[in-house]
Amino acid sequence: MISVVTPSFNQSDWLRLCVASVADQAGVEHEHLVQDARSADGTQDWLARDNRVVAVSEPDHGMYDAINRGLRRATGEICAYLNCDEQYLPATLARVAAYFRDHPEVDLLFGDVILVDENGQPVSYRRTVLPDRAHIRAAHLNTTS
Fold first, then answer.
1. Average pLDDT over residues 104-130
2. Contact at 8 Å (CB) between 93 and 28?
3. Radius of gyration of the chain (CA)
4. What is the pTM of this model?
């Protein structure tokens, strides 16, 4: 199973698209944990009733604290985070699961990004550059929350 954690704060319209993109992932068991920081934009009106997500609404200390709170609740063998203004393309999670299955020596995956405008129209494509080991260690392993 794949656990997807989404931090959220006052981004209801984008969050709806994010939730739909995760819910539409076929071919792989997954859970979507939305960690909301008590949004005041209507998010709480629909989020708690959306059975496609496990929603928690509580104060946090920012996006990374919210991600860590969600990861602590995750039950999947594979964990991911997807920001509330982001969406997965179809079959993303199935491809992730297949890659980890076929490459058990791999611990981390990340991918390219298609940036879109407020109307969902693509504006640019960013190819991900593989960071060196020192950068990964400095940026991610020595943080607390």
1. 87
2. yes
3. 16
4. 0.85
